[in-house]
Amino acid sequence: MPKESFLVNRIKSVGFALKGAWLLVRTEASIKIQVVIAIVVTIAGFYFEISSTEWILQIFAIALVLGIEGLNTAVEKISDYVQPEFDVKIGFIKDISAGAVMLVSIASAIIGLIIYIPKIFQ
């Protein structure tokens, strides 16, 4: 059987990634909330005409939160698959993963406040 080309493999990889992103948004309540927040702050960015640098920071913060949330979901799903029963060690792993989401979310909220508070109170 001939090996597929580099381009075909990349196209398939993008397809798998899009499927994974869609599954994440479709099945996880927390990511749905974060997507709504991302849409709201994106609309706010247009409304307040934020600078290019502020857009970069905002997009990076949104992507970081959504990406880490995706990794957290993957850790939780794999943990539940490996050990479906309650396990203290699995709980520890899941708590660390959730903590990473919390840290990134706090940092992103601070970035949002730095961007928007001066614009709101002008």
Task: Characterize the structure shown.
With about 120 residues, the chain is an all-alpha fold. Helices cover about 85% and strands about 0% of the residues. It has 4 helices and no strands. The chain has helices spanning about 5-25, 30-45, 50-80, 90-120. Helix 1 (about 5-25) packs across helix 2 (about 30-45). The longest helix has about 35 residues, at about 90-120. The protein is flat, with a radius of gyration of 18 Å. The N and C termini lie far apart (about 65 Å). The mean pLDDT is about 95.
- Give the integer mean of the pLDDT values: 96
N- and C-termini, Cα separation = 66 Å
User: What percentage of the residues does DSSP assign to strands (E)?
Assistant: under 5%
SSE class: mainly alpha
Count of helices? 4
**Global Rg:** 18 Å
Outline the biggest β-sheet. Answer: none
Order of helices and strands: HHHH
Q: Strand tally, please?
A: 0
- Please give the share of residues in helix: over 70%
Dominant shape: flat
Low-confidence stretches: none
How is this fold's topology laid out?
Elements: H1 6-27, H2 29-47, H3 52-82, H4 88-120
Helix pairs in contact: 1-2, 2-3, 3-4
Summarize the structure.
The longest helix has 33 residues, at 88-120. It is built from 4 helices and no strands.
